[in-house]
Structure to design on (299 residues):
């Protein structure tokens, strides 16, 4: 299958924490669907529906009994329908709850401690023997993790290299994937040496093999949830939580959004960027973990 080369432009898009401020635990000023912010103000604004007008006769002239109930009924039927609620509308857990999840625990592991846990997935990964500067313990995925296949860039490129800690997280991720009938995940890249954050000097988590750019999920029935084609989000709006909206609601867009928001609710990644974030993420989901991170966010 022809594979797209990683988009260098995405290298620096992530983790613009300080500039936005939204991703810091407890800060909710950036408008994203930050954990803990999703139950903030605004969602009380359900569509206002005018009550049916009470029909009164001006004069006590006897009338036939039928028209009035019919007119009242028509007024009620003209009211806009309640928008359908989906699992992705559920408020995300608080930062304190997410902090108890796998991302915090695994991101803190030393390379030695991570290697000891590789027994969980030893038949699915192998040590990468090439040069992978700034990656703690470089691996490649060579077989399905649990029941889920990960299609990754070929060994002739560095882009399929990932750190031991991200491999452990992806293994934990498969529990959510299986719940959502995912059998395959297509990865554009994990490792991009020297990838930096946008307009900043600090390195992206891709530079450490601790981030994944996900293009597509394949389901058990053969259906594919493609990020570029099926996201249908609105830029700048929260992807998950009560205020999340789909511009086009269909089976695939609902399933994709439910899946991504379920992943965000598990505390598997510190930071998830979706097409709602910016144009550079229009075709993929960025998911990363970071040692000593104090935030969780999906934007
Ligand atoms: Zn990325």
């Amino acid at each position: 299958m022809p594979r797209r080369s990683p988009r260098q432009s995405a290298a620096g898009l992530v983790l613009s924490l300080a500039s936005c401020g939204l991703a810091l635990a407890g800060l909710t000023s950036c408008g994203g669907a930050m954990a803990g912010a999703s139950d903030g103000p605004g969602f009380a604004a359900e569509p206002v529906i005018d009550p049916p007008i009470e029909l009164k006769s001006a004069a006590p002239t006897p009338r036939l009994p039928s028209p009035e109930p019919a007119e009242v009924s028509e007024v009620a039927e003209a009211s806009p329908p309640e928008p359908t609620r989906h699992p992705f509308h559920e408020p995300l857990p608080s930062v304190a709850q997410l902090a108890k999840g796998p991302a915090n625990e695994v991101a803190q592991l030393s390379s030695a401690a991570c290697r000891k846990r590789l027994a969980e997935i030893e038949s699915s990964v192998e040590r990468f023997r090439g040069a992978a500067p700034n990656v703690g313990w470089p691996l490649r995925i060579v077989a399905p993790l649990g029941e889920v296949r990960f299609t990754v860039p070929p060994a002739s490129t560095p882009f399929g290299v990932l750190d031991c800690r991200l491999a452990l997280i992806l293994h934990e991720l498969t529990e959510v994937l299986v719940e959502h009938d995912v059998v395959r995940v297509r990865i554009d890249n994990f490792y991009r040496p020297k990838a930096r954050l946008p307009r900043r000097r600090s390195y992206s988590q891709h530079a450490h093999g601790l981030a994944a750019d996900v293009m597509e999920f394949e389901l058990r029935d053969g259906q594919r949830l493609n990020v570029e084609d099926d996201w249908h989000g609105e830029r700048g709006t929260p992807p998950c939580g009560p205020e999340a909206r789909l511009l086009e609601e269909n089976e695939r867009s609902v399933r994709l959004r439910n899946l991504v928001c379920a992943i965000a609710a598990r505390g598997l990644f510190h930071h998830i960027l979706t097409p709602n974030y910016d144009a550079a993420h229009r075709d993929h989901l960025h998911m990363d973990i970071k040692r000593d991170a104090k935030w969780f966010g999906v934007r």
Notes: The chain is about 20% helix and 15% strand. Residues 10, 14, 206, 211, 213, 286 surround zinc ion (CB under 6 Å). Confidence is low (pLDDT under 50) at residues 1-70. The chain has one domain: 15-298.
